[in-house]
Amino acid sequence: MIRDRRIPVPRFLVDLSPLKKDLSYVKIENGVVRIGALTTLWEISRSTLHRDIRYAGFTDVFKKFGTMAIRFNATIGGNIASATQYSDYITLLLVYDARLRLESASGVREVSLEEFLVDKRTTIIKPNELITEISFREPPSGTSSAFIKFDRRELIIAGIVTGAFYLTKEGERVKDVRIAFDMVKERRIPGRARMTEECVIGKTLSESVLREAESCLEREMKRISDWWTSDEYRLDMSKTSLRRGLLLAEKRISSGVI
Ligand SMILES: Cc1cc2nc3c(=O)[nH]c(=O)nc-3n(C[C@H](O)[C@H](O)[C@H](O)COP(=O)(O)OP(=O)(O)OC[C@H]3O[C@@H](n4cnc5c(N)ncnc54)[C@H](O)[C@@H]3O)c2cc1C
């Protein structure tokens, strides 16, 4: 990026590793899941987020994330701060309604992940701030999630389409549903498909409801064409992801198996 002059040459490089011992954790306190921003993806994979069905999407993201070497070193805070539509933890954390703690020498503030993101590589973070923690409410029982990433191969992929799906069931009914994609509207950043969520909430995931959800997504989503693929193909794959993601989350809730 620097070599191609797509970002300016930084005047200083700051090594965050001395903060590692304080900002590397996954804990659940008073119904809130807290992840330290310097927690690596590998450390997350050793935590309860990869064992509890309510967080199943974390396992999906990890399995398709870059290479093992990257998973050992990349931090969840770095993935979020990168702020691209290919930042997989952003897409997933949007469906958990995550919040970020931003800290600087002048104080601490908390913002939602959604308001943090402005556009590709543009966020509301100030030059002197760090993301120190990611948090979200512990989901109720009867909840699970799924993350789907489509590409022409399985690994080291950016994803032609990525989607995250969060579902809470009450009996046969969908009590809560949250859906995010790598891109929903014009902004090249992950976002929630709220209109599609409205088409699913309170209903049973029958074939007709899934079809209705697909047509809601078609009305809500604006896909783009680029050298990778066409907007039409992206939209088709988004609808397929939606269907598969919702059904996978539902299956996980009923089977208890990730
Ligand atoms: C081959 C390859 C494959 C990849 N595959 C994937 C993939 O499948 N999915 C995916 O999502 N990404 C992928 N990536 C992107 C990359 O691995 C991630 O974005 C990574 O998580 C960055 O984390 P890091 O800790 O290394 O951050 P860094 O690279 O060190 O930092 C990234 C940016 O975030 C800033 N930053 C870092 N930590 C903080 C903080 N705590 N507070 C504020 N700013 C901060 C840095 O200043 C920098 O601007 C891939 C990258 C490569 C090279």
Defining key terms:
four-stranded antiparallel beta sheet; globular; 9 helices; 258 residues; alpha+beta; 2 domains; Uridine Diphospho-n-acetylenolpyruvylglucosamine Reductase, domain 3; binds flavin-adenine dinucleotide; five-stranded antiparallel beta sheet; 11 strands; Enolase-like, domain 1
Q: What is the CATH topology of the largest domain?
A: Uridine Diphospho-n-acetylenolpyruvylglucosamine Reductase, domain 3
Ligands bound here?
flavin-adenine dinucleotide
Average residue-wise pLDDT: 95
Sequence of strands across the biggest β-sheet: 1-2-7-3-4
Series of secondary-structure elements, N-terminal to C-terminal: EEHHHHHEEHEEEEEEEHHH
CATH architecture of the largest domain: 2-Layer Sandwich
Uncertain stretches of 5 or more adjacent residues: none
Q: Helical segment tally?
A: 9
Query: Which geometry do the CA atoms define?
Result: globular
**In which range does the helix fraction lie?**
25-40%
- Approximate strand percentage: 15-25%
Largest sheet: 5 strands, antiparallel
β-strand number = 11
What does this structure look like?
Keywords: FAD, Flavoprotein, Oxidoreductase. Residues 1-141 form the FAD-binding PCMH-type domain. GO terms for molecular function: FAD binding; oxidoreductase activity. The protein folds into two domains: 20-137, Uridine Diphospho-n-acetylenolpyruvylglucosamine Reductase, domain 3; 143-255, 2-Layer Sandwich (Enolase-like, domain 1), CATH 3.30.390. The strands form three sheets. Strands 1-2-7-3-4 form a five-stranded antiparallel sheet. A four-stranded antiparallel sheet has the order 8-9-10-11, sandwiched between helices. It has a two-stranded antiparallel ribbon with strand order 5-6. β3 and β4 (107-112) form a beta hairpin. The termini are far apart. It is an alpha+beta fold and 258 residues long. It has helices spanning 41-45, 56-63, 68-73, 76-82, 88-95, 113-116, 194-200, 207-220, 231-255, and strands spanning 26-29, 32-36, 99-104, 107-112, 117-119, 122-123, 130-137, 143-150, 161-170, 173-181, 191-192. The chain has nine helices and eleven strands. Bound molecules: flavin-adenine dinucleotide. The site of flavin-adenine dinucleotide has 18 residues, from α3, α4 and β7.
